[in-house]
């Protein structure tokens, strides 16, 4: 089953073509990575997937529907954690979980989700008092409280220390094991190599390579996704 299908996606801001003819598909239960430097078009792509931006041209289908037209319906089935998303500083962790759960018709038990992501000990803490790792765990829990079929994660581990990053990898691995489809935007190549079944490398709004980390390494004659990425970057100069 195809969960996401993107064909010839274009999105420009004035003369800046943020996304310039991007096409890819993501299957059910797959973890798919979007990689590339700042300004490559990764965030604009996931914003189009999430219904937050309307494409200039091309087609986007998420769970068989157009997210620009069916955003409200898809919000019941898709969990989204965006890099810039923030909560009010004084909102407590448990209050945030309860509030987000109320947005869904058939949410998971928010208390169980709270425990699952090890947020129980900080349930009474305000968002503004949380560490970076705790904030990221909360954002992930909020994206999952609706029991989504698809989760979109934009730079989930940016700013986390190595221990918190590894803990987050474990959480994403748990999602994969449960059969949840994941789209992961990341700057970290070791993260993508560890977690993703396939990746697409974007540069200047276009996909310059896609495939499994092993396939990209083989295609470039390198030993890892990081080396493959650097080789592709060199080709683009």
The counted number of beta strands is: 9
CATH-derived architecture of the largest domain: 3-Layer(aba) Sandwich
Shape: globular
Helical residue percent band: 25-40%
Query: How much of the sequence is in beta strands?
Result: 25-35%
The averaged pLDDT comes out at 91
What's the helix count?
A: 9
SS-based structural class? Answer: alpha/beta
Radius of gyration, taken over Cα atoms and rounded to an integer in Å: 18 Å
Count of folded domains: 2
Q: Report the uncertain regions.
A: none
The ordered string of helix (H) and strand (E) elements is EEEHEHEHHHEHEHEEHH
The end-to-end span amounts to 37 Å
User: Might you state the CATH topology name of the largest domain?
Assistant: Rossmann fold
- Main sheet, how many strands, which sense, barrel? 6 strands, mixed
The side-by-side strand order for the widest beta sheet comes to 5-6-7-3-8-9
Characterise this structure:
The structure is a single chain. This protein is an alpha/beta fold and 237 residues long. It has 2 domains: 1-77 and 168-237, 3-Layer(aba) Sandwich (Rossmann fold); 85-148, no CATH class. It is 35% helix and 26% strand. The chain contains 9 helices and 9 strands. The protein has helices spanning 42-49, 71-74, 93-101, 110-116, 132-144, 162-177, 189-195, 213-220, 225-235, and strands spanning 2-13, 16-27, 31-35, 57-62, 78-81, 150-154, 181-185, 198-203, 206-211. The chain has a 6-stranded mixed beta sheet with strand order 5-6-7-3-8-9, with helices on both faces. Helix 8 packs across helix 9 (225-235). The model has no long low-confidence stretch (mean pLDDT 91). GO terms for molecular function: ATP binding; ATP hydrolysis activity. Keywords: Antibiotic resistance, ATP-binding, Cell membrane, Membrane, Nucleotide-binding, Translocase, Transport. One of its GO terms (cellular component) is plasma membrane. This is ABC transporter ATP-binding protein. Residues 4-229 form the ABC transporter domain.
């Amino acid at each position: 089953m195809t969960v996401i299908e993107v064909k010839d996606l274009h999105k420009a801001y004035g003369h800046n073509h943020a996304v310039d003819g991007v096409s890819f598909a993501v299957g059910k239960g797959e973890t798919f990575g979007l990689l590339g430097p700042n300004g490559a078009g990764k965030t604009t792509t996931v914003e189009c997937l999430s219904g937050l931006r309307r494409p200039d041209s091309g087609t986007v289908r998420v769970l068989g529907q157009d997210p620009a037209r069916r955003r409200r319906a898809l919000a019941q089935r898709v969990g989204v954690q965006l890099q810039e998303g923030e909560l009010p500083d004084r909102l407590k962790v448990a209050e945030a979980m309860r509030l987000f759960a109320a947005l869904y018709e058939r949410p998971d038990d928010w208390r169980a989700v709270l425990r699952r992501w090890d947020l129980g000990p900080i349930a009474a803490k305000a968002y503004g008092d949380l560490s970076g790792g705790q904030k990221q765990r909360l954002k992930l829990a909020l994206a999952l409280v609706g029991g989504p079929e698809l989760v979109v994660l934009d730079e989930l581990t940016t700013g986390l220390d190595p221990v918190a990053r590894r803990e987050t990898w474990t959480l994403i691995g748990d999602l994969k094991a449960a059969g949840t489809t994941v789209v992961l935007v990341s700057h970290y190549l070791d993260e993508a190599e560890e977690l993703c079944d396939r990746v697409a490398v974007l540069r200047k709004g276009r996909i310059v390579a896609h495939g499994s980390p092993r396939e990209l390494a083989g295609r470039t004659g390198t030993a890892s996704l990081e080396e493959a990425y650097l080789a592709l970057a060199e080709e683009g100069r």
